[in-house]
Amino acid sequence: MAEFRAQVRGWLRSRLTGRFEPLMGRGGPADEQMWELSLEWERELARGGWTALGWPREFGGRGLGPVEQVTFYEEYALANAPGRVTHLGEMMLGPTLIELGTPEQQRRFLPGIKNATELWCQGYSEPDAGSDLAAVRTRAQLRGDDWVISGTKVWTSLAQHADFCFVLCRTGPFESRHRGLTYLLVPMRQPGVTVRPIRQMTGTREFNEVTFDEAVTPASWRVGAVDGGWPVAMATLGYERSRRLAHFPIMRAELDGVIALARSRGRASDPHIRERIARSYSELLVMRTMNERTLAALAAGRAPGAAASIGKLYWSHWHQRLLDLQADVLGLESQLLAGDPYQVTAAQQALLYSRAETIFAGSSEIQRNIIAERVLGLPKDT
Ligand SMILES: Cc1cc2nc3c(=O)[nH]c(=O)nc-3n(C[C@H](O)[C@H](O)[C@H](O)COP(=O)(O)OP(=O)(O)OC[C@H]3O[C@@H](n4cnc5c(N)ncnc54)[C@H](O)[C@@H]3O)c2cc1C
């Protein structure tokens, strides 16, 4: 493993220079100024063989086990390497297609995801269907060789850059709820698709409202059965909820940053701050153990399923508490904007964005319902 670690470290060190140097510690979906460079970086990673690490080799992945994947992400965080922007394809749709897609879909879409040449967005939420995803109204009808799709999706991250969207559509009567939904792969660059940006409290515009007005997609670009899209959508959500596994080393680096900040600001001897740091560190170790268990299950070919909700619930609240702690260490300085009219600092950006983390990929209340019902077998929420 030491050899693999040295290989990752050497590669990152050699590439994070020159034109990619400004991306260090930056990038990610919310960094609009760095979008083009972030994408170039993704392609550089792909050329180096550092994407699709956990995908099996027969699907073009590296087939790496959990320990190697964790090692890669540790080195990635230590190198202060750029925030990733292709997670919707690589960590959510890719594994779903490997598990449930047809060979034709796998051949058509997996290479573009792995090479970061085709970008994806997720079309689940609607104005009246968020937590209650079975209330989706966006309708799809089969006409000849095509599906024709009409309806509105909302909070669609990165739709402004996406080439395709995986869309949960209503194909049965509305009353059929989750039994009348179909999962379609839809091209975004066509006349029937309109993308309107939504500005967030971070000041950035990472997500959108997307309108489908008789948009079309080939009949064969359906994952799972007609009216059988629900289990496919749930599989994708399982991968989405467990994708933070990759973030553990970043969280470790964030905690180290807060500890260093507390020392430099003379707050490290404040008993209240020390107690919160110690608690944060203990919880981080719990998360590491949970991550390793999930990675081992994934490596053994078991989908994360409902248990991924435990990890999602845990890290999102942990992260909010850590960023609250960082703001308290900074004191009044945490309130000062970096510039006019609304330029937030990196700490403010992280703090504000962390509010979204207990909402996206299913809110905390929904995760608790899933844990209660599907992990613990308690009676259903009515
Ligand atoms: C940054 C960000 C990015 C996102 N990106 C995407 C994306 O790319 N694609 C996409 O499709 N969606 C995306 N979403 C949407 C996200 O999945 C939804 O916001 C989320 O599922 C909650 O749905 P909602 O906003 O409609 O809230 P609602 O469902 O209206 O919920 C409102 C409140 O009621 C609570 N609640 C609802 N039902 C229950 C219940 N049964 N029991 C207890 N409490 C309940 C919720 O927990 C919440 O606190 C994104 C959201 C954010 C914040």
Give a structural overview.
With 382 residues, this protein is an alpha+beta fold. It has 11 helices and 8 strands. The strands form 2 sheets. Strands 1-4-5-8 form a 4-stranded mixed sheet. Strands 2-3-7-6 form a 4-stranded antiparallel sheet, with no helix packed on it. α6 packs parallel to α9 (308-330), α7 (248-264) runs parallel beside α9 (308-330) and α9 (308-330) runs antiparallel to α11. The longest helix is centred in the last third of the chain and has 29 residues, at 271-299. The radius of gyration is 21 Å and the shape is globular. The chain starts with a helix and ends in a 7-residue tail after the last helix. The model has no long low-confidence stretch (mean pLDDT 93). Bound molecules: flavin-adenine dinucleotide. The site of flavin-adenine dinucleotide (FAD) has 20 residues, from β1, β3 and α11.
Low-confidence stretches: none
Strand order of the largest sheet: 1-4-5-8
Q: Quote the average pLDDT.
A: 93
Report how far the terminal alpha carbons are from each other.
49 Å
Count of helical regions: 11
List the quaternary state of the chains: single chain
